[in-house]
């Protein structure tokens, strides 16, 4: 797909030349301490922890979109959701985390797709607590869902994102499902007459 | 030779324990501690912690070799950067069959250089696996290690080197 | 592409009342666990500074909501850095080449490990300076200087909080290293660059490392 390879090239080029880098383990360990702290604060109420992670991600997404637009130099808006998906995977994730999750499982109306993470730097070294619940209830990387929701909202798309599998839970892959609910540009404020 | 291996935390708290027997020189890997000795193992190992403390400030290496002896029990130690101690109690069992290899083998010679080296290799392999446990954000210092995968790794290291 | 269904291991299909911690963790069908992953795989991997900045910013915002006051916030950041210091102490020692794989036995050895190995790993450069307090009343104090701490680069502190130093997080990491190595200490971060006209490093931060008495005594006993 033309937009996919173009996106890949943009992502690669930006990563190489326009991104200030930092040791990955610093980020991994920082995220680890955030999740561990949340689990402690909410006394292992993992449902609540998931919510908090999503919220944090949302806050990040609202700010990150500007950074993304500035770095990727794409003033042109994506013409369809499929193009958006390519940009998210090959540019968005690439320039922040140097990964390019695979896009798959499109629905026939092209409004829903999956991202499969072969690599997840936030989850390096991690093993969920063996308390009989964490693996059933916690989505360790839930912050990603919030980031996408926030960033895409600022780009005039209302989306819903959630994980459906995670290798930390013993599944065979880490997969996130993203659904486009609607484009937001209908909501123009009424002109004062 | 029967082995009792323990990981002791910074508050002298046991984090992990594992008993095994030698797999070398025809051993079957099953520990053969006399019943009353098994209870003693924990005490002996704990008592040797003082010796660890004496030795650890004398040199910067992690492998401290043999640091204590209690009758026929020899204790070797390895200490990590964060003061977690790996202690291996080795107890040679009287050989029931004579084998020409027995006289130089690890199970029969708790203090030979080969044994010292084998124990070091055992410690180093456990150390690597212990580090992987420690790097988990959900693992806090001093927690017991209950992972059956970790236990399997320690067992494998025991079979490989001892 | 075939859709991937979350595949539960055989244990997962057992009835609900068998869910106890004795059942143990579930692993993917390829059996890969954290024990399979080589420790050095991510040693030189890099991510964007921005991702660190965003995460750290959220960490601070979240902490702010749960504390009363700046000192409390700094203490919380310190506490969050502490276990990281412990982990990095062991990890980085493990990665040292065999000849220099020695546990620090003296204060200077420990501080050199921190200002070079630790700093280089986290920030790709050594710390800018290491000094011992020249005040005879406080011989147990040392100062590590960083002209441009990464953690402060992206945080814009609101005016009413201008005493806050987010480098309290790094101070916590340093403290974790010191405590872990057997040199209990208290480490705090202090901004020293602000206020002066034409100051070369406005973000300069000094980490004050205050070792406990027992450490000083042992140093003397060991003869250095």
Give a structural overview.
The complex is a heterotrimer of chains A (193), B (162) and C (224). Chain A has helices at 2-17, 24-41, 46-72, 81-97, 134-137, 143-154; strands at 21-23, 102-104, 112-116, 157-165, 175-183. Chain A is an alpha+beta fold and 193 residues long. In chain A, strands 2-3-5-4 form a 4-stranded antiparallel β-sheet. The longest helix of chain A has 27 residues, at 46-72. The N and C termini of chain B lie close together (9 Å). Mean pLDDT of chain B is 87; it is low at 98-102. A 4-stranded antiparallel β-sheet of chain C has the order 2-3-5-4. In chain C, a hairpin with an 8-residue loop joins β2 and β3 (141-146). The model of chain C is unreliable at 1-21 (pLDDT under 50). The chains are: A alpha+beta (193), B alpha+beta (162), C alpha+beta (224). Chains A and C meet through β1, α2, α3 and α4 of A and β1, α1, α2 and α3 of C. Chain B: InterPro entries: Longin-like_dom_sf (IPR011012), Sedlin (IPR006722).
Topology:
The complex is a heterotrimer of chains A (193), B (162) and C (224).
Chain A: H1 2-17, E1 21-23, H2 24-41, H3 46-72, H4 81-97, E2 102-104, E3 112-116, H5 134-137, H6 143-154, E4 157-165, E5 175-183
Antiparallel strand pairs in A: 2-3, 3-5, 4-5
Helix pairs in contact in A: 1-4, 3-6
Chain B: E1 2-8, E2 14-21, H1 35-47, H2 49-56, E3 63-70, E4 73-79, E5 85-91, H3 113-134, H4 148-161
Antiparallel strand pairs in B: 1-2, 1-5, 3-4, 4-5
Chain C: E1 46-48, H1 49-65, H2 70-95, H3 107-123, E2 129-132, E3 141-146, H4 150-153, H5 168-180, E4 185-191, E5 205-211, H6 213-222
Antiparallel strand pairs in C: 2-3, 3-5, 4-5
Helix pairs in contact in C: 2-5
In short:
The complex is a heterotrimer of chains A (193), B (162) and C (224). Chain A has a 4-stranded antiparallel beta sheet with strand order 2-3-5-4.
What distinguishing features does this structure have?
heterotrimer; A: 193 residues; alpha+beta; 4-stranded antiparallel β-sheet; 5 strands; globular; B: 162 residues; Beta-Lactamase; 5-stranded antiparallel β-sheet; 4 helices; 35% helix; ER-Golgi transport (chain A); NO_sig/Golgi_transp_ligand-bd (chain A); Trafficking protein particle complex subunit BET3 (chain A); endoplasmic reticulum (chain A); TRAPP_component (chain A)
